[in-house]
Write a structure and sequence with these properties.
Layout: H1 2-17, E1 24-29, H2 37-49, E2 53-54, H3 57-62, H4 65-68, E3 71-78, H5 82-85, H6 87-93, E4 98-101, H7 112-123, H8 135-143, E5 147-150, H9 163-181, E6 187-189, H10 200-208, E7 213-215, E8 230-231, E9 234-235, H11 242-250, H12 253-260
Parallel strand pairs: 1-3, 1-9, 2-3, 3-4, 4-5, 6-7, 7-8
Helix pairs in contact: 1-12, 9-10
The structure holds zinc ion (ZN).
Length: 266
């Protein structure tokens, strides 16, 4: 079904869905393993040549793209020790990124079986590097100029949990990160990232907690009018050609929905 959807996107895209590069390009990655870093660097360079300026979360939401030009927001979700190893590369590329961290599997306190359950059962991660960060490494990411954000404690589907448990998943993670870093957490991304994985009640709760941005992972919404809080993101696939990714960034999910009766964003 997924392949059929992708074929359909490819088919109707050429004439009707293509809106070109969005002014705000929110991208997310999970892990970038050593063998993918050349492709990652090339992607950054080519996006720069398309006019994108890579900025942190605060500047991303504050920039008026009419006067400030195209901005790109680079972000990483979950928890991988490889993020820490990417610090020199990100510095060389001169980009700031946001890292949304799950605090359940931290190396400081999680057991091997908890770490295995995190990658295998909850993330269904297919890569080879199933090792999470330590608190010290999260601090070094922050000290290197990157944003640390909240991604819940255990990476469950929040909308499937009782409301109180879902709230706990958020504030336990926030509290761990605030203690670890000695600063307030202002940015949140929710697990799985589609509309059905969150709720308006949880959105209100996040705003009450003081989060200034809430990142989603909904392909087809990069052209959406920016509401001041929601960071729309699409995944960039390093295994695919640059132009194949460009096509995915250009799709208008709402037009796709009207044309096909299938949602690209739910
Ligand atoms: Zn995630």
């Amino acid at each position: 079904m997924k392949e059929l959807t992708q074929k359909l996107i490819g088919g109707v895209h050429a004439g009707l869905l293509n809106r070109g590069w969005p002014d705000r390009l929110g991208l997310y990655f999970h892990n970038v393993e050593a063998g993918e870093r050349a492709a990652f660097s090339e992607t950054i360079r080519r996006l720069r040549s398309e006019g994108y300026r890579f900025v942190g979360a605060n500047e991303y939401v504050r920039t008026d793209t009419k006067s400030g030009g195209r901005v790109a927001f680079l972000s990483f979700d979950d928890n991988y020790v490889d993020w820490h190893e990417m610090i020199p590369l990100l510095e060389e590329l001169d980009v700031q990124a946001a890292f949304y961290v799950n605090t359940g599997p931290m190396r400081d306190w999680a057991t091997d079986s908890e770490i295995a359950a995190y990658y295998e059962d909850r993330l269904r991660y297919k890569g080879s590097r199933t090792r999470p960060l330590s608190s010290a490494e999260v601090r070094e990411l922050r000290d290197a100029g990157h944003t640390i954000g909240v991604h819940t404690h255990n990476h469950f589907v929040l909308s499937e949990l009782p409301f109180e448990t879902a709230k706990e998943e958020i504030y336990i993670c926030r509290d761990h990160l605030e203690q670890m870093l000695g600063q307030r957490m202002r940015h949140f991304s929710y697990p799985f990232g589609m509309r059905r994985h969150f709720s308006t009640e949880l959105q209100s709760y996040c705003l009450e907690l003081g989060f200034e941005t809430i990142a989603r992972a909904t392909p087809g919404l990069l052209h959406e009018r920016f509401d001041g809080v929601t960071i729309q993101r699409t995944d960039w696939r390093l295994g695919d050609a640059f132009d194949a990714n460009r096509v995915r960034m250009s799709v208008d999910g709402h037009v796709f929905e009207r044309l096909t009766g299938r949602s690209a964003v739910s």
